[in-house]
């Protein structure tokens, strides 16, 4: 798969720091100026800056100009949890699932901001139960913007991977994702869908997937049985992709 445009821009900014064009302590241009420089939308620049902040190359408050913190390390290969099906397949497991219900809704302010659409726009909401090696492990609630939702409506209800189907059938690539993990307990609906007792511990996973230009493709709240999935991350003094959010910052981050 070809490198996403925002990743290319991030690497160009890294190169400018390595070469001394941009130095530690120096502030970058505004998002608008960078978008003009690289001939892309501001959202693409925003994703590039988010990547550089997450790795520790840049710093700065949200909405403010970013500042160079250090010279970037050489590129490293890392596994990214982009979707349930990708994770399962990468670990030699068999993903599956089936749609419980789906329908069109008005986006509303919160979902509109997360999906970058008008609050009055339609979004397709899909409720699925996901399987791992044939066993129920997760309830997935996903919302898609209208243009993509019209394609998702045609995805077979028992498709193992919606993202893979969209890539194969329409060339839509889920290039990356943002994630927030937290703990919750099984609601009455989740308990019925997963066939477990109400109140059982669940791992709550908020996910916002994006294309190569950084535009949102979907937002999803996935609730896993806690004994089937845990999250492990490695960080250090100079590379820290972990962000700690308060409860009111998680919907949507």
TrEMBL record:
Q: What is this protein called?
A: GntR family transcriptional regulator
Recite the UniProt keywords alphabetically.
DNA-binding, Transcription, Transcription regulation
> Pfam families from the xrefs?
GntR, UTRA
Record-level Gene Ontology MF annotations: DNA binding; DNA-binding transcription factor activity
- Oxidoreductase as a keyword of this entry, yes or no, is no
Q: Which GO terms describe its biological process?
A: negative regulation of DNA-templated transcription
What organism does the record attribute this protein to? Brevibacterium aurantiacum
Q: Which InterPro entries match?
A: Bact_HTH_transcr_reg, Chorismate_lyase_/UTRA_dom_sf, Tscrpt_reg_HTH_GntR, UTRA, WH-like_DNA-bd_sf, WH_DNA-bd_sf
Q: Where is the HTH gntR-type domain?
A: 3-72
């Amino acid at each position: 798969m070809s490198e996403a445009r925002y990743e290319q821009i991030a690497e160009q900014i890294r190169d400018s720091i390595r070469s001394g064009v941009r130095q530690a302590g120096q502030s970058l241009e505004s998002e608008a100026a960078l978008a003009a420089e690289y001939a892309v939308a501001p959202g693409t620049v925003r994703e590039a800056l988010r990547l550089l902040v997450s790795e520790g190359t840049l710093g700065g408050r949200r909405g403010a100009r970013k500042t160079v913190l250090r010279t970037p390390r050489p590129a490293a290969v890392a596994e990214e949890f982009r979707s349930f099906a990708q994770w399962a397949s990468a670990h030699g497991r068999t993903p599956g699932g089936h749609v419980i219900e789906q329908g069109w809704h008005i986006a509303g302010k919160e979902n509109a901001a997360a999906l970058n659409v008008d609050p009055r726009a339609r979004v397709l909401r899909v409720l699925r139960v996901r399987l791992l090696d044939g066993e129920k492990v997760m309830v997935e609630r996903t919302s898609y913007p209208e243009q993509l939702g019209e394609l998702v409506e045609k995805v077979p209800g028992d498709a193992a991977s919606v993202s893979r189907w969209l890539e194969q059938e329409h060339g839509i690539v889920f290039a990356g994702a943002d994630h927030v993990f937290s703990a919750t307990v099984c609601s009455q609906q989740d308990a019925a869908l997963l066939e477990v007792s109400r109140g059982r511990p669940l791992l709550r996973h908020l996910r916002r997937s994006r294309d190569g230009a950084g535009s949102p493709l979907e937002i999803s709240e996935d609730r896993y049985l806690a004994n089937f999935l845990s999250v492990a991350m490695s960080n250090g003094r100079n590379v820290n992709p972990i962000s700690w959010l308060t409860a009111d910052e998680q919907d949507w981050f």
